[in-house]
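fyi for ur records
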Amino acid sequence: MYLGKLVYGRSHKVSYKSKKVVATNEDHYIVTEGTHEAIVSQNVWDLANEVARRHKKVSGTGDVNIFSGLVFCQDCGSSMNLSRNAYVCYRYRNFSTSENGCSSHRIPYKLLYASVLGSVQEVTAEARRDRDGLIAKLSGIGQKKQQAALAAARKDQGKTEKRLAEIGELIRKAFEKNVLGSLPDDMYNGLVTGYTKERAELAAHLETVTEQIAELTKEADNATQFVELAEQYVDVKELDRDLLHRLIDRIEIGESYKEDGARCQKITIYFRFVGKL
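which gave:
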């Protein structure tokens, strides 16, 4: 209902002879779209349900682990669990370094918090400083180049669709001439064979161009959605669970290593809509 839809058939009677009512499998619901104005967008709906599915761990003091459901081991893909003020690989905790195990990938909570906060502050500050530039950068190619590529793809799409329609008309006319006897069978068969081959090639090309247009449009839309989201958190001073789950899809932690006597560790943040920055 929040999305402007009505759902029918959530339950049904076992038979007309019985008053017993049972729940209907969700696959068999009857959904009617556009029955009323939606109060949330599909993106907001999907995000809310995704966050709700993620485990929300609460400590003994009632504090919520704001990173719960977001932090993963970069090597084995397991979730990272908070233990004694540090995140540790779940597989390492349960299997240690055995055949099925992993290394600890231990990262202090304060270090993770500071690193993520710094990244969020950096990207939100850039969204305020140069909105269009950030959208262009996140789209993968320059904004002007992207618009030119999209225009060229749409022109190609229109040209291909026009030629497909022409071929259909040519085949129809050839058929009529053949039936009326003004076009010999051998010429008719040759024309239709050529037209059919060209039509198949054009149909395959049209599918490729349509996919290209969808991808170019999606890139721009995703970048715009992320920047609009980032603009809501300009001048952020601290992290909370709502901010993290709205801006970030996942955080991957690499194993620490020594370089020039210093302890180093890779933290990879995958932001919503645009992925790794």
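The helical segments are 42-53, 90-95, 109-129, 131-138, 143-180, 185-230, 241-247. thats all i got for now
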